[in-house]
Amino acid sequence: MLGIIGGTSLLFADLPALEKTIVPTPYGKAEVHTGEFALLLRHQHNLPPHRINYPACLAALAVLGVDEIIAFGSAGSLKQEIPPGSIVIPTDFLSVTDIPSIHECSIGHVRPELDGDLVRTLAELVPDARTGGVYAQTRGPRIETVAEVRALARAADIVGMTVASEATLALELGMRFAAVCTVDNYANGLGEETLTYEHILATSRANCRRTEIILEKIVERLA
């Protein structure tokens, strides 16, 4: 079963008709929209990134029988050659903050990765996307400082606040995972505009139809 995780990039999209379900898990409850696929909106109840119950969200998808996940993530560009409006399909990730785990009372290790087969499928479905690159995760909800952006740019290409946590938990729960990242802005200090959350939302709103088309293609192929 296909699972879709969406956030800011799906905020203004016209989504398929699905039934809202509250799924209890050992880590808490999560709201999932179900039908031919499962859709989880990560900022449910308007939660900022650092307050999302990631274990409950990912466990809810596993409970519903999801075995592969595509996450849509809003990201900032760390490189001048990746302008706002780009789409990036990352092939690796790093985090400079804590990553949640389902292994709180036992020892368990996973080899973190973004699924190669899903990445290749996404590259076929979204030929205009830039395939390859590293997603860096920060804690949020604040935007990164200029110094942090310079440091992250040495190792990564885009920056966000959610995908690394989701990818790790998906692997711990036996689900394959890949991401489509919409670049809504240059990271702090790279662009000429003063970066604000309102600016990020405006870019997301302007590209909502493109996001809808990508979602439709993914569902048609994988659901």
**How many H/I helical runs?**
6
Strand segment tally:
11
Largest beta-sheet details: 11 strands, mixed
Instruction: Give the helix proportion (percent range).
Output: 25-40%
Strand content: 25-35%
> What's the gyration radius in Å?
16 Å
The secondary-structure class comes to alpha/beta
* Unreliable parts: none
Large-scale geometry: globular
**What is the average of the pLDDT values?**
91
Could you spell the SSE succession in H and E letters? EEEEHEEEHEEHEHEHH
Euclidean distance between termini CA atoms = 7 Å
Overall description:
The chain has 223 residues and is an alpha/beta fold. Helix content is 28%, strand content 27%. Strands 1, 2, 3, 4, 5, 6, 7, 8, 9, 10 and 11 form an 11-stranded mixed β-sheet that branches. Strand 3 (28-34) and strand 4 form a beta hairpin. It starts with a strand and ends with a helix.
Short description:
The protein is an alpha/beta fold and 223 residues long. The protein is built from six helices and eleven strands.
Descriptive labels:
about 220 residues, alpha/beta, 11-stranded mixed sheet, about 25% strand, globular
List the helices and strands and how they pair.
Blueprint: E1 2-6, E2 19-25, E3 28-34, E4 38-41, H1 54-63, E5 68-77, E6 87-89, E7 92-95, H2 116-125, E8 130-131, E9 134-137, H3 146-153, E10 158-160, H4 163-172, E11 176-186, H5 197-206, H6 208-222
Parallel strand pairs: 1-4, 1-5, 5-11, 6-8, 7-9, 9-10
Antiparallel strand pairs: 2-3, 3-4, 5-10, 6-11
Helix pairs in contact: 1-4
